[in-house]
Design a protein that fits this description.
alpha/beta, Rossmann fold, 5-stranded parallel β-sheet, 5 helices, globular
């Protein structure tokens, strides 16, 4: 089963994404802040992390960079998203596997989750 961790400070968006993922048989957990990210990663061992860039006090690009440079997390796919103008260079610098502009298409989000988890069916 595909495991996804979703991080966003918008609880309505979190609920919508979690329900959509679960509808497709994907195990999904969420948190509203980056302060719980690594604790949840240790517990869940997600295949994919979906994360907003603007998380109040934290920047998802910095959290992504930390994921990608920490040995035990480095292989975890990260898809960042945002409603703001984000430079492509900042996404590359973060090490993210993909970026989605909000509002994003749920089918595109689902295709990234399946592709990055290795579930191509």
């Amino acid at each position: 089963m595909i495991k996804v961790l979703v991080i966003d400070d918008d609880e309505d968006l979190l609920e919508m994404v979690i329900l959509m993922l679960q509808k497709y048989g994907i195990e999904a957990e969420s948190t509203t802040g980056g302060d719980q990210l690594f604790k949840m990663m240790d517990r869940q061992h997600p295949d994919v992390v979906l994360m907003d860039i603007y998380l109040g006090r934290e920047d998802g690009r910095d959290l992504c960079k930390h994921i990608k440079t920490t040995g035990k997390y480095a292989g975890t796919a990260v898809v960042l998203y945002s409603a703001g103008y984000i430079t492509p260079a900042s996404i590359v610098d973060s090490g993210a596997d993909a970026f989605l502009q909000k509002p994003f298409d749920m089918k595109q989000l689902l295709s990234y989750v399946k592709a990055f988890s290795g579930a191509y069916s």
